[in-house]
Specification:
heterodimer; A: about 270 residues; alpha/beta; Rossmann fold; eight-stranded mixed β-sheet; B: about 140 residues; alpha+beta; Ubiquitin Conjugating Enzyme; two-stranded antiparallel ribbon
């Protein structure tokens, strides 16, 4: 009996959702997905071409109901980071048992991490590399490293300061971000999503690794071999500014007063 | 999202960024201290830097999605058009001199003062470029 909170039902997210929800342990899901199903999604997605123009969150709910009529499904067709919906999103996270992040942009991953840590929930993240040459699956617990620790350890680039760069879109062939311009194949997306689903279903069992990289192709200078797993034990960074800072204990009005005072002090320097 | 309108954003400011700005200002000449303005959901750091010959007036903006999204730095002093200068005199800070294995902006490690130091480095490069025509750091890869 578990409640899954998932963000993202794109070409990878829908596979994870489908596989995880086939497990009878999952009895309820909350799915957050703001996008509409588009023509360029069709060749990498589970839904038919006739569904183009409809909300992905509705299509995902229909797909699951046909296979798991007993599943309780709550769909939120909103952006995870939209301030207007945080109360509802936070309530859903507070009620869940585990989370799946299948978002394709760094801002959403950091936000998801913040939500899960604040509510002390375990979660997983899957990422397909450009061109489908491999992919990552990460697992997080509230007492372990945060997404900031992992991204920092792996020396990832955050969003750049190049203006008006759209977020990475692993399913859109003409995505404008250089690193994600080469689309991944449906097979490579499904492979990493399958791994992501297995890791998610075993999330509550102990493991000695935090991140797994599975190579799917040999790429000179990048991956020496195809089909090789690499497991990483990434430690929680004690100097991480995301998860290890000394917390300010003030809340609500006290917090506002403290902030206003600090800003006023620095406004008159 | 939510630097100024969520508890997590306010906590980040109070526990990380505002204390390091106060530390930066400590003992510094008034002209070179950081002053803060709130503009909508953005926090603007206004300050001057003197990397070499000239004093430059600068604004570093912490957007609503900071620290996930890096600070955005603009030079208010009029510059000659040069490499690594984006529209509106915004500095290209987080790609310059970097490689895929050395990180650019790292939200887990950097505070807004790193952006101030990066602006200082950029301006030092600008003065060298102005004199020699050569940008002294490698291009982004």
């Amino acid at each position: 009996m578990a409640h899954l909170f998932q963000v993202g039902a794109g070409s990878g997210g829908i596979v994870v959702l489908d596989l995880v929800c086939r497990d009878p342990k999952i009895t309820r899901i909350t799915l957050v997905e703001p996008d509409v199903y588009e023509a360029h999604n069709v060749h990498r997605h589970l839904f038919p071409a006739s569904a183009v123009g409809r909300k992905k969150v509705e299509l995902a709910a229909e797909w699951l109901r046909e296979r798991r009529p007993d599943l309780q499904i709550d769909g939120l067709c909103v952006d995870l980071t939209d301030p207007a919906h945080q109360t509802r999103i936070n309530a859903a996270v507070a009620a869940c048992d585990l989370g799946v992040c299948a978002a394709d942009n760094e801002e959403a991953k950091f936000h998801f991490d913040r939500l899960m840590r604040a509510n002390v929930k375990p979660w997983t993240l899957g990422e397909v590399l450009s061109g489908g040459i491999g992919g990552w699956v990460h697992r997080f617990a509230s007492d372990g490293p945060c997404y900031g620790c992992v991204a920092s350890y792996l020396k990832r680039s955050g969003p750049s300061d190049t203006p008006n760069v759209p977020p990475a879109d692993y399913s859109q062939p003409n995505a404008a971000v250089a690193e994600t311009r080469i689309p991944a194949s449906r097979a490579s997306i499904a492979t990493i999503a399958g791994l992501h689903a297995i890791v998610t279903l075993a999330l509550l069992e102990p493991h000695d690794w935090t991140s797994m990289l599975l190579t799917l192709q040999q790429v000179p200078g990048v991956f020496d071999e195809a089909f090789r797993p690499h497991r990483f034990r990434i430690p929680k960074s004690l100097s991480c500014l995301i998860c290890s800072i000394e917390p300010v204990t003030a809340t609500g009005e006290e917090l506002d007063v403290a902030l206003d005072q600090a800003l006023a002090r620095l406004g008159h320097e | 999202m939510g630097l100024l309108d969520t508890e997590s954003g306010k906590r980040r400011l109070l526990s990380v960024d505002l204390p390091v700005i106060e530390k930066y200002n400590e003992g510094r000449d008034l002209e070179f201290r950081i002053r803060i303005q709130k503009v909508g959901s953005t926090l603007v750091l206004c300050y001057n830097l003197k990397p070499g010959h000239n004093v430059y007036s600068i604004e570093t903006r912490l957007l609503s999605s900071y620290p996930t999204v890096p600070p955005e730095t603009r030079i208010q002093t009029l510059l000659k058009h040069c490499p690594h200068l984006l529209e509106g005199q915004t500095l290209c800070l987080w790609r310059q001199g970097s490689t895929r294995t050395s990180n650019r902006w790292d939200p887990a490690k950097f505070t807004c003062i790193f952006a101030v130091q990066a602006a200082w480095r950029w301006l030092a490069c600008y003065e060298i470029w102005h004199d020699t025509g050569e940008w002294p750091l490698p291009e982004a890869k």
